[in-house]
């Protein structure tokens, strides 16, 4: 039995033990490793600002106590994911204002070049040149996009984004989007704004971050309606989240039925508990080995052709 995930030591020795624990988890399932669609890599300066924000218990994180477990240098963080046996991961990065996305995309393209196990990630913001730089990112090989409606504080159905959604739907490139109202709501969070996008772009490969928490069931409605909508598990079902945004037990059969559209995401490195806790949190949902295998590896491997 684990005692308290949140208080586990993260000294180098403990990390070695954790890597072994993570590897035992996927080894038991007979998987070749994990695919994690929701990990954060971004320019160090930006990441440190994000960490400062978490340290200051800012309103976007609901004013919560949120100690970052993996506050390490970039190379160490990537190496740690490899030690865990994460075969492919992403570089979720996102702008909070205009004029920033293109610069982030340049950084992310370079990061993907020097990090072959990272799926080349890009982002965007509703602004006049968005279509141009998103097209450039697609041509440069971007395989997944990240959009953050809460931090960006924009309406995803903004007219400025319509061509971009159309292009990404056509190119069948997934977009991981933080569109749920957790940990704190924003003006354009919740299922309604993104439902308007899906009504116009029903084939969009939307990956709803964090299982859409706390609107789990409303986002399940969208996934059941649109066959290209998926959800990532990021932070869902963990002790930390269950305390204030619990997953409703009555929705378990729907979680089981959507098993081919749920993708492992972790939010590494910005998590207030060890990585392995996310895996154990998935396992204790009790949906069985086949569900776990699909979620932790096969669904993403299929989606990205790994
Ligand atoms: Zn995240």
Automatic annotation (TrEMBL):
<keyword id="KW-0378">Hydrolase</keyword>
<keyword id="KW-0456">Lyase</keyword>
<dbReference type="GO" id="GO:0005737">
    <property type="term" value="C:cytoplasm"/>
</dbReference>
<dbReference type="InterPro" id="IPR006680">
    <property type="entry name" value="Amidohydro-rel"/>
</dbReference>
<dbReference type="GO" id="GO:0016787">
    <property type="term" value="F:hydrolase activity"/>
</dbReference>
<protein>
    <submittedName>
        <fullName>Amidohydrolase</fullName>
    </submittedName>
</protein>
<dbReference type="GO" id="GO:0019748">
    <property type="term" value="P:secondary metabolic process"/>
</dbReference>
<feature type="domain" description="Amidohydrolase-related">
    <location>
        <begin position="35"/>
        <end position="306"/>
    </location>
</feature>
<dbReference type="GO" id="GO:0016831">
    <property type="term" value="F:carboxy-lyase activity"/>
</dbReference>
<dbReference type="InterPro" id="IPR032465">
    <property type="entry name" value="ACMSD"/>
</dbReference>
<dbReference type="InterPro" id="IPR032466">
    <property type="entry name" value="Metal_Hydrolase"/>
</dbReference>
<dbReference type="Pfam" id="PF04909">
    <property type="entry name" value="Amidohydro_2"/>
</dbReference>
